[in-house]
Batch of 2 targets.
Target 1
Amino acid sequence: MSMITTVTLNAAIDKTYYLPRLELGKLTRASRLYADPGGKGVNVARVIQQLGMPVTATGFVAGSNGDYITRQLGQQGIAHDFVSVEGESRLCLNMIDESTGVSTELLEPGPVIPAEALERFKEKLSELAGKSRIVCFSGSLPQGVPAAYYAELIARVKEQGAIAFLDTSGEPLQHGVRAVPYFIKPNEHEVHHLFDDRPATEGELLDKLRLLQQSGIKLVSLSLGEKGSLSLYDGQLYRTAAPKIEAVNTVGCGDAFVAGMAVGLAQQLPVEDMLTLAIASGTANALSARAGNVNLDDVRRLRGQVTVERE
Ligand code: TA6
């Protein structure tokens, strides 16, 4: 039985290009490139599998790109059960200028999801959630999917007695929090957008996190970038700091963070250890040339360098 299921409604092929230099208007030849099944939930699934826990990836795929995604997942040993639709799964490009280290992403829109496929997916999700301890919803919604769709899916996951993680933004997040997922990982901007869209002091930000927690969301993690993260769990605030590293490719760090949190929760680790695993996984992802990818030795080493303070 898969302990964890990840949902990617807009699955992608992530193509990562390393360029000697990226200058608009000029021809550039990639010195190396990688192509991996991607989209946030697929990245979460890959890292969960690399952390040693059984996982199933689901969502929507389309066309020959969709075939590539599912074929590669099979080769990476990741169970998958997607709903296929017409059209073509998208490419998500990440161009890394090696002269500056600057990463520039270009994301295609992906296929339009028809109403009948939305219904088909709801049934599939209920079936998968019935076999899972945790279901992770990650990423933006493709065209044709109503902003409240995550909220409907979260309700189905909870009906099956499973735990729902939600990592998204904008209107889908605003609707999603009303379905009271167990865990959300908003950035500062997304927190403000959930309330009054006014930037605030750290104290006002914490008040907003506490309001989210009072609505029943058990775990809220707020990424502060270089400054680490703040997590509120069952009313207790934890301030965490990630070890300093030389980042190679930061794309997918948030997904690896979610994967570490899901594995930590599934293993019923104490909160501090769960947060440590999440941060070590997110940091380890930045050491990989590929998106949504960690080396277990890096995770183990970094776990000893993460600080978690109760406040
Ligand atoms: O978080 C990184 C990433 O998953 C990339 O690998 C790329 O697939 C992108 O995000 C997709 O984001 P979206 O929110 O559109 O699903």
Note: The pocket of 6-O-phosphono-beta-D-tagatofuranose is lined by residues 10, 12, 14, 38-40, 43, 92, 107, 139-140, 251-252, 254-255, 291-292 (CB under 6 Å).
Target 2
Amino acid sequence: MLDQIADVGKDLKRGGYSRHGYNKPELELRHWFVEQAVRRGLNVETDRNGNLWAWWGERGDNALITGSHLDSVPGGGAFDGPLGVTSALEAVDLLQAKGFKPARPFAITVFAEEEGGRFGVACLGSRLLAGAISPEKALALKDPDGITLAEAMKAAGYDPDLVGRDERALKRIGQFVELHVEQGRGLTVPVGVASSILAHGRWRFTFAGEGNHAGATLIEDRRDPMLPASQLVLAARKAARGGGRATVGRLVPNPGGTNVIASTVDVWLDARDTDDARTRAMVAEISEAAHQAAKEEGCELRITEESYGDTVHFDSGLRDDIAGALGGVPALPTGAGHDAGILAAHVPTAMLFVRNPTGVSHAPEEFAEQADVDEGVKALAATIEHLGS
Ligand code: HGY
Ligand code: MN
Ligand code: MN
Ligand code: MN
């Protein structure tokens, strides 16, 4: 099934896929998912936050939900997100073929803008569903072209005025299980379950100096924000110790001319660690270094926390129950964030991982062996049968 969507959203410039919330390729994938669901006799609805729910039978309470996302990071791989959705559809095929019928309400979900690849906040659809971000803040988020989430949702036919915590939809979820390609190399067997997710936040550092001419401006007359921006990148690496992960993957000088000293530089920091205190301490150390570097260059610095989620420890009861039903599979921590990480604070949640032989993710090289993918589908089907009987 991944082959069916292999041509959707290819990024010819960067390589990989650039499928972002409500952009053309992502809308195409939504349409593809609805077709696939309807073909299986599932009843599809879109909730007020742009998330899709494909119900097998009646919608109802104490539902067993599985799903993931279809959007990608810029230049992302084919598996992160879509593998969870295609495996859920394939698991339904397996179960329908053997005459299984869920004894409780069951649905496959597709969450909106999980990567934050367009609007900058990860897990936007599940955060809105759970009330983990305010509608005002979410609707005002702008994409790189200055289009707000409200405008993008409207253009896609959704009513942005409806977004917000969806108590009713949350209450319907009895248990949520997300299958995902592993991002890292912890698995030595095809399938595992998740034990925890790192604490994870994103901060925006805006350095402001004085735009000027690259040739006509003496060094001593400069206030070049690119200098403290560069110091921030180095400080992030220096502060990431003992398992902490601090990353700068996006640095945008404005105006960005080769012969122009930038007037401002925006730098986004992605920081993660095993607990809240360690993550905050790492970010504090990096921020201190950034303020120091800005001062030395006569630049201003404004830091904005754009999103943050504390460490997620998955419900060990559900995790061990699933691992047992699968004949005993390993539990492993993940450094990547997921919609399951947002929902875990509200409903019993578990994750299944499918082995990634290279561990590479958020890159076109992301890959999983067909044999492992098949094991993942069988494991998800067995989990649905185990929990849904
Ligand atoms: O950033 C993450 O870890 C997730 O893939 N959104
Ligand atoms: Mn991802
Ligand atoms: Mn993902
Ligand atoms: Mn000139």
Note: The longest strand covers residues 199-208.
